[in-house]
Amino acid sequence: MPEEWELVSDATLNDCLKPERHLQRANYSYVDGHVARQKFIDTFDPDRDLNLWNPLQAR
Fold it and tell me: What is the reported pTM?
């Protein structure tokens, strides 16, 4: 889960996620079977208390 990832700089994170591809979005598959096209920041953002990666915290 992202909260367990080693803290890295924004430059390193951007290099790993390649946000310039596909209009900064990716397809995310959810346990209930639906798929959503989202930006990473819309799936995990501690500043907004948002964590869709953790089933206990997902909304």
Answer: 0.67
- C-alpha 30/C-alpha 33 separation (Å) is 5
Q: Is 41 helix (H, G, I), strand (E, B) or coil?
A: helix
pLDDT tens digits, residue range 7-57? 656 666 667 777 777 788 889 998 889 999 999 889 988 889 888 888 887
Q: Which two tokens stand for residue 30?
A: 């959810």
Phi, psi of 55 (to 5 degrees): -60, -25
Residues in the chain: 59
The tokens for 51 are 């964590």
Rounded Cα gap, residues 52 and 59, in angstroms:
7
